[in-house]
Fold this protein.
Amino acid sequence: MSINIPSTQDNSQISDNYTPDLAQSRYDFKYLVFPNDLGMSDLGHYMIININVPTALGSRSAAGRYTNQFTLLGKNERSKVDILRYGPGGPGNEFAVIGSDGSRPFVSIPRATRRIAESIALHMPSPLIYNTQNVYEEISLTALGGKLGVATAGFMTAAAKTFAGTIGRGLASGASKLAGAAGQVAGLAAQLAQTPINPMVEILFSNTTVRAFTFEVLMAPRNEKESINLKAIVKTLRFHAAPEYGMGVGGYAAGLTWIPPAEFDITFFNKGVENMNILRVNTCVLERIEVDYAPTGTYSTFRNGHPVAVRLSMGFRELEPIHKQRVLQGF
C-alpha cells in the first residue's frame, strides 16, 4: 500500500517561525501498514513513523553490518531536528540559517543519521498527551545572605591566617565560630518568640525538560495479511530501537563499542496531509517498547499461531527541549 504525502509547507521564506516540510518527500517506498484500510477509517487520521539510522563516522552511509542493508533515501532526507536546525540541505549549506537574525544554533550536534525508505503507518494512538514541564527552584534570600556572610567570614579568616601568623589564625578561627553560633542563636530566639525569620523565598527558572510520549496502539488483525504486517511492525520497531555491536578499529575488538539505535520521526496525518491542528512531535529516541500478546487478559491465537490481538506501547523522548521558536513552528 502506498500513501501519498504531499508537501504541506511553503519554504520560500525563512524566519523565526520557519516551518519546512518535515514529511517524507518520496512516496514510492513500502509502508508497513496496520490496518490494511488505514486512512479509510477513523475520518482518515493516522500516524507515520519514519526511521533515521546512524551513519558511519565521517560518512553518509549507514553504519553497522545490519543497518546498511536497508534502502537509504536521498542525501537530503534527514531527521526533523536536523532540518529545523540547518535547513533541508543539512549543516554547512547555504540554507543552514533558521533565525531571521542570521544566526544558527550556538551549540548543536548533527545527529549523524540518514532516513531509510521503510516506514510504519498506524492508526492514531490513545491517549495522545503532550506534557511540557518547566523546572523552577526556590531560592531563600535570607539563607543566601547568610551564606554570603559566612563566605565573607571565611575570606577574612583566610586573610588573617595569611597575614597575622599563629595568633591571628586563632583569633580569626574563634571569630568565625562565634559568628556562626550567633547566627544559630538568633534564629532559635526568633522561633521561640513566635516571630520566625522570613526566608524571603523567590522562585527562579532553572530548566525545561524534554518531552516524553507514551503511545499505545491496540492491534487486532482481521486477516492473515494484517497478522503478518503486525509481526513485521513489531520486529521493525524492536530492531531499530536496539543498538548494534561495533566492530572496533580495523574490524578488531568486536563488541567493545556500541552503534547507537535509530532515531524516529513521528508525524500525524489527516487524509494524506500533515495535521497541523494538533501539536507536532520532533525527532525522538525510542526508550521503551512493550508488546502485550494478551491485552484482554487471556492469551489467544488464530490457527496459524498469530495472536488475536496485540497491545503495542512505545515510550519516545524528544532530542531537544521545546523553546519559543519550536512553539511557533507547531511543536
User: Anything to note?
Assistant: The first strand starts at residue 31 and ends at 34.
